[in-house]
């Protein structure tokens, strides 16, 4: 449970930083503009949805498309991650707030930045959490 919460917080911070870096990706809060608590809760909810989508659908796509990963030397992963980010934006659009992505290529760039930031934050927090791989 502790690992899940730490991973959720890492993804939330990485998503927040991604929205600051990539202009085509933003998070729309469910509360009024300027309400920090509503924005943080929205980030946590979007990170939770992203974790579910990436864990369930992403792994299924990676298993099915394994020959394409080998054929393209892993470059198809950029497109798959961009599509997964667009799927999260679509799901959050269904609930009325959350992640918005302008185009597919903004989604690909956002997925790359999000992946790099969550990896970097995870490495920085590894000594604090105490779990090594």
UniProtKB/TrEMBL annotation:
The keyword Amino-acid biosynthesis does not apply. Keywords: Membrane, Transmembrane, Transmembrane helix. This is Phage holin family protein. InterPro entries: Phage_holin_4_2 (IPR007165). The lineage of its organism: Bacteria, Bacillati, Actinomycetota, Actinomycetes, Micrococcales. The chain crosses the membrane at residues 12-31, 37-61, 68-92, 104-125. It comes from Microcella pacifica. It comes from the Bacteria.
